[in-house]
User: Fold Beta-amylase from Brachypodium distachyon.
Amino acid sequence: HAAELTAGYYNLDDRDGYRTIARMLKRHHASLNFTCAEMRDSEQSSEAKSAPEELVQQVLSAGWREGLDVACENALGRYDATGYNTILRNARPKGVNKSGPPEHKLHGFTYLRLSDELLQGQNYVTFQTFVKRMHANQ
Assistant:
């Protein structure tokens, strides 16, 4: 957690540094927006010791525990079902609730990296499916 420590907050095994940030945002009636919603641990270099899935869940959970509106965005240009499914898991970590709105869900999602490549062939079909799934249970 060197980058976090360098930034001046402590996010260690026994201390949730993001919960502290979420509390401060709540005091100021702010929302929480976080990036890398599409990234998976298994797709990162083992040398980097990066765990984007765990990080996203930690940050979003901290916001939800503090009662914040929580939003996300993608960091990379991804046009595959695996990336979209990772976003969907982050958008509704407990899935779709047939009897009402899910307990935890994103307040918003910003799709970054709109490009000609996204709008071509199978990429566009996969994106359309993703958008429909994002709106499930709304």
About this structure: Residues 2-135 form one domain. Residues 105 and 122 are 28 Å apart (CA to CA).
